[in-house]
Amino acid sequence: MLVICDDESDPQGPREITSRPDHVAWIDYMQSSGATLLGGERLRPSGEATSVRARDGEVLISDGPYVEAKEQIGGFALIDCANLDQAIEVAARHPFAAHGVIEIRPVWAG
After folding, report:
1. Could you tell me which residue ranges the YCII-related domain spans (predicted)?
2. Residue 65: alpha-carbon gap to chain centroid
3. What is the per-residue pLDDT across 42-59, written as a single tens digit (0 to 9) for each?
4. How far is residue 13's CA from residue 45's CA, in Å, rounded to a whole number?
5. Which residues pair with 58 in a beta bridge?
6. What is the DSSP letter of 30?
């Protein structure tokens, strides 16, 4: 999974992002590289998040993100790649890698 972290000040929603030329080029690259995009979504801003903790039988709920930081998780892309090297190449070509951070996280396979 590619965890996409970026500055939340970019107000573009999913429709605007998926129509951007750099994003279209990334999708085209994915198709030509043999990697597969299994799914993904842009997340709403962290200010709309609700954090839930359960401690000693008590549920604690707070508004907003768990951590205050300039870069927040803004979305994810679930990809299927041959190996870590291919996942790194795919992540490096993601448009948000140019100004944010793309974290690669393996998914537990059952």
Report:
1. 8-108
2. 15
3. 888 888 888 888 999 999
4. 10
5. 55
6. H
Whole-prediction pTM value? 0.81
Could you give the residue ranges of the DSSP H alpha helices within the chain?
14-18, 21-33, 84-93
Give 49: exposed, middle or buried? Use CB within 10 Å, 0-12, 13-18, 19+.
middle
For the stretch 17-31, pLDDT in tens is 888 899 999 989 988
Tokens 């970019």: give the residue: 10
